[in-house]
From TrEMBL:
<keyword id="KW-0378">Hydrolase</keyword>
<dbReference type="Pfam" id="PF00929">
    <property type="entry name" value="RNase_T"/>
</dbReference>
<keyword id="KW-0269">Exonuclease</keyword>
<feature type="region of interest" description="Disordered">
    <location>
        <begin position="298"/>
        <end position="319"/>
    </location>
</feature>
<dbReference type="InterPro" id="IPR036397">
    <property type="entry name" value="RNaseH_sf"/>
</dbReference>
<dbReference type="GO" id="GO:0000175">
    <property type="term" value="F:3'-5'-RNA exonuclease activity"/>
</dbReference>
<dbReference type="InterPro" id="IPR013520">
    <property type="entry name" value="Ribonucl_H"/>
</dbReference>
<feature type="domain" description="Exonuclease">
    <location>
        <begin position="2"/>
        <end position="184"/>
    </location>
</feature>
<dbReference type="InterPro" id="IPR047201">
    <property type="entry name" value="ERI-1_3'hExo-like"/>
</dbReference>
<dbReference type="InterPro" id="IPR051274">
    <property type="entry name" value="3-5_Exoribonuclease"/>
</dbReference>
<dbReference type="InterPro" id="IPR012337">
    <property type="entry name" value="RNaseH-like_sf"/>
</dbReference>
<keyword id="KW-0540">Nuclease</keyword>
<protein>
    <submittedName>
        <fullName>DNA polymerase III</fullName>
    </submittedName>
</protein>
<dbReference type="GO" id="GO:0003676">
    <property type="term" value="F:nucleic acid binding"/>
</dbReference>
Length: 319
């Protein structure tokens, strides 16, 4: 199996959000990739400039970062051709690697726009090199820029950043340094092609937490009422944990809860509800062990939010 370490550059509406195409807010204008064998040695490279078909000029902020002129892109190939050539180059057995979690999703969104999503069945499993780098080098698993990681690892910066092939090469350089054991247990899954029914629902156990991705719901209000979505199982023994703090919505529009496993202590639950392009909804739930002090902080946050919302309702009644 090969590792396909790829990077995308994309453009957006030069006229701002008002003129953005809601089906394609980010249009891919460059694909760059390196192919690495199982020993993580580079065996081939891929690069294509993509001729824009949606946005006919480069957004000023994009131009400042990637230094590509529209006339250069005009000589590129259509996205349909570029992605077919890219997937053919990837071969039969491969796994994607990227710096961050956005490239895999944007690749699929661009493919969907052109009716090509069937060429890349999902959900797509990949390695988020940025996430794994954070796990290996920083206790909190923080997300750092690619340039920060390159500097920290003492890797020579032979070329400027923010071109697809160059960034793919640098990502590959970081990927080589990661411990194989840390890589294999920290894969990521992109759910742009989300589960549609109960049979397709996803359950994954990572070293520090469990993740669940639900089926689709037509009504957003029904998501948190679903038994599986609202359940809380210990990520260590996978037995039901007794709820100590019921699900509540926090400031970031996610739901949180705290439960207690008699063997393994406090469990934090977090649910984010996602909206699909087809106006359906699904949930992504994470269950993670926490300390008692963390549970108390969540309780205080819940109580504070509750008081603020009560005060807001009272003030609205007086108006």
């Amino acid at each position: 199996m090969n590792y396909i370490v790829f990077d995308l550059e994309w453009n957006q509406s030069p006229g701002g959000k008002k003129y953005s195409n809601s089906r394609l807010p980010f249009e891919i204008i460059e694909i760059g990739a390196v192919k690495m064998n199982e020993q993580r040695e580079v065996v081939d490279v891929f690069q294509r400039l993509v001729k824009p078909q949606v946005y006919n000029w480069i957004h000023d902020s994009i131009h400042e970062v990637i230094h590509v002129d529209y006339k250069d892109l005009a000589d590129g190939v259509p996205f349909q051709q570029a992605v077919r050539e890219f997937l053919k180059w990837c071969g039969e057995e491969y796994v994607f690697c990227t710096w961050g979690n956005q490239d895999v999703m944007e690749l699929q969104r661009n493919m969907k726009y052109y009716g090509m999503l069937s060429l890349l069945p999902g959900p797509v499993t990949y390695y988020d090199v940025q996430k794994i780098y954070g796990i290996c080098h920083e206790e909190a698993g923080g997300r750092r820029s690619l340039e920060f990681a390159i500097d920290q690892m003492g890797i020579p910066k032979a070329q400027d950043f923010h071109r697809a092939l160059t960034d793919a090469r640098y990502t590959g350089d970081i990927f080589k340094t990661l411990e194989p054991a840390a890589v294999c247990v920290n894969s990521s899954i992109d759910v742009y092609q989300n589960p549609k029914n109960k049979k397709e629902e996803i359950f994954i156990s990572y070293p520090t937490y469990d993740q669940y991705v639900s089926r689709e719901f037509a009504d957003k209000e029904k998501v948190m009422k679903d038994r599986e979505v609202a359940s809380t199982r210990c990520p260590v023994c996978h037995m039901p944990a007794k709820r100590r703090i019921r699900w509540f919505m926090n400031n970031s529009r996610a739901y949180e809860s705290v439960s207690l496993c008699q063997k393994h202590g406090y469990i934090k639950g977090k649910v984010r509800i996602r909206h699909t392009d087809e106006d359906a909804y699904y949930a992504i739930k994470k269950l993670k062990r926490i300390e008692e002090k963390d549970a108390e902080e969540i309780r205080e946050k819940r109580d504070s939010l509750r008081k603020k919302r009560q005060a807001k309702r009272q003030s609205e009644k007086l108006v």
